[in-house]
Amino acid sequence: MLAAGLAVADEKGLDAVTMGAVATRLNVTPMALYRHVADKADLLDGIVELLLTEFPPPPAGSWADQLAAMAVAIRASAQRHPSVFPLLLQRPATTSRARLARDSVYSALQEAGVDVARIEQAERLVSTAILGFAASEAAGRFRNHSRRQLDADFAALQGLLRRFIESESRIVGNERPAATTPPAP
Amino acid sequence: MLAAGLAVADEKGLDAVTMGAVATRLNVTPMALYRHVADKADLLDGIVELLLTEFPPPPAGSWADQLAAMAVAIRASAQRHPSVFPLLLQRPATTSRARLARDSVYSALQEAGVDVARIEQAERLVSTAILGFAASEAAGRFRNHSRRQLDADFAALQGLLRRFIESESRIVGNERPAATTPPAP
DNA sequence: ACCTGAACACCGTTCAAGT
DNA sequence: ACCTGAACACCGTTCAAGT
């Protein structure tokens, strides 16, 4: 049922996500939906949560590769669900799915050697930058820019974040990770 | 009338911005609004545009001071109008007011000595980062964080952007601006 | 346990009519 | 030029009733 709501949003926009439209897609009357959600706000919450489900776990690899893969996946999710994605800015990472995504970024920063005292803030800044770009693109702020231009912007954003993380890291040059990071297997 | 709509949004949230609510505030019937806006979407567009009006022109000072002042002003505007501000992500800088804000960032980057070939992209990245943070804060994504924490995050974001701009700049050390920037008076 | 019909208050929008 | 009353289609939500 949340999938039906997401489908309506993807195909006809957020305004078309109506109790009636979702119900029709399920061959049911609008009132039947109230068995499964408290009200329309709850339905939208569920749809956003479903979108979060699509964020894949980060692949193995260096912290930079992990972060790059996550950023690309998040942007792709925004492009698939442009009318729902911007709603992510309204929700703190309270659900387990949202926390999982946040913790993935956290782990990558940890592996990068970011100082423990700064890692939470660094996570917020990195996540916000990626989310802000993806939401802007999805919501239409960049609608007058070419896909090629936006791809280049996104690559530049990733580079800027990578340099930020490196500057926040205690590791200089190519030394081994410091003591607080888990020892290599 | 746009001011009445913005006031309703600020006091009771975006969902409360109803043709009826705005009309009531103006001591008029809902239908009277259609003399001034084409439809409700047009009303919301106008309200967003009005919000843009509040961005002050950048003060005199170094490019870093100008940028910092603009970022602070944008964030303050988001805090004043939390339910309208996130709508900014939906609009490209097509109106003259929006272009003025964008050009202010552009000018600061120019003064900073950012390479002409990269200045437009740098403007998008810097603006998107600031907008993304302010919109996240306004929309509620950081609702579980203290004001103090968010102030620190915002300061860190500004620092990160400053370092990014410096790295994009051709100016090394304390030399005078290069040839393409206007000569000092 | 799940769904429906009828009903209610509310919303956006139109149109002809009023001043 | 600006505003209103009446009307229409649509929306979210409730509640008692149905299977």
Architecture overview:
- Two copies of one chain form a homodimer.
- Chain A is mostly helical and 185 residues long.
- Chain A has a single domain, classed as Orthogonal Bundle (Tetracycline Repressor, domain 2), CATH 1.10.357.10.
- In chain A, 61% of the residues lie in helices and 0% in strands.
- Chain A has seven helices and no strands.
- Chain A has helices at residues 2-12, 19-25, 40-52, 63-80, 96-112, 116-139, 147-168.
- In chain A, helix 5 crosses helix 6 (116-139).
- The longest helix of chain A is centred in the last third of the chain and has 24 residues, at 116-139.
- Chain A is globular.
- At the A-B interface, helix 6 and helix 7 of A face helix 6 and helix 7 of B.
- The first copy, chain A, binds a DNA duplex (19 and 19 nucleotides) through loops.
CATH architecture of chain A: Orthogonal Bundle
**Low-confidence segments of chain A, ≥5 residues, pLDDT <50?**
172-185
Structural class of chain A, by secondary structure, is mainly alpha
Instruction: Quickly count the domains of chain A.
Output: 1
Order of helices and strands of chain A: HHHHHHH
> In DSSP terms, counting alpha (H) and pi (I) runs of 4 or more, how many helices of chain A?
7
Q: Largest interface, per-chain counts?
A: A-B, 32 and 32 residues
- Total beta strands of chain A: 0
Attribute tags:
61% helix, disordered C terminus, 185 residues, homodimer, 7 helices, mainly alpha, DNA-binding, Tetracycline Repressor, domain 2, 0% strand
